[in-house]
Amino acid sequence: MKQAIASVFISCLLFTTGLYAQSRGVVTVIKDPKIDSLIAKRIALNSIRESGTAPAKPPVIVSQMGYRVQVFYGSDRREVFSQQAKFKSLFPALNTYITYKEPNYYLRVGDFRSRLDAQKLMSELRPDFPTLFVFREKINPPALENQEDDQ
C-alpha cells in the first residue's frame, strides 16, 4: 500500500514539473521614441568631446570636510539676515551660509580646510560677535591662488 502511494506521488510530481517547464515567448519592448533621440544626442556629444572641439569644461566643485565658524543662531529670521549683512559689511570676501534646523536659524561663515584657520577668524570676530563656535562640516573648497602670478 505504501509503495502504491509513493509511486502515485512520484508520477504526480513528474507530471507537474513537465507542466511548469519554460517555453519560448516573445518580448515586446514599449518605449518612448524620445529615448532614441536622447541616446543619439549623447553619442554626438561624446564624439565632439573626443575630437577636442568641445568647449573647456567648467571646474567641478567637490565638497570636502572642513571648518566653518558659527557667528549667530536664533529663532528670529530677520535677526539672522541682519547679522549676515553686518558680517558681509565687515568681511565681504568670506562666504556666509544660513541654515534652518527647527526652531533655529544658524549663520556660519567661511570655508576653512584647517581648524587653525577657523580659529584665527574666530579671534578676529570676537569683539563684534560674542557667541562663536567652530564646526566641522562639508565645505566648498576655497579657490586656489594661481602661483604663476607671483613670479
SSE order and pairing:
Elements: H1 2-19, H2 34-51, E1 64-74, H3 77-90, E2 96-101, E3 104-112, H4 115-125, E4 133-139
Antiparallel strand pairs: 1-3, 1-4, 2-3
Which secondary-structure class do the elements indicate? alpha+beta
For the biggest sheet, the summary is: 4 strands, antiparallel
Which CATH first-tier class of the domain at 64-139 would you pick? Answer: Alpha Beta
Strand order in the sheet with the most strands: 2-3-1-4
Q: What is the beta-strand fraction?
A: 15-25%
| CATH fold label of the domain at 64-139 | Alpha-Beta Plaits
Low-pLDDT regions: none
Radius of gyration: 33 Å
**Helical content (DSSP H or I, runs of 4+):** 40-55%
Mean pLDDT: 79
What is the molecular shape?
A: elongated
Number of strands: 4
Q: SSE order in H/E notation?
A: HHEHEEHE
First-to-last CA distance: 103 Å
User: Superfamily at the CATH H level of the domain at 64-139?
Assistant: Sporulation related repeat
Tally of separate helices: 4
Task: Please name the CATH architecture of the domain at 64-139.
Answer: 2-Layer Sandwich
Question: Can you put this structure into words, describing what you see?
Answer:
- With 151 residues, the chain is an alpha+beta fold.
- It contains 4 helices and 4 strands, in the order ααβαββαβ.
- Strands 2-3-1-4 form a 4-stranded antiparallel beta sheet, with helices on one face.
- A hairpin with a 2-residue loop joins strand 2 and strand 3.
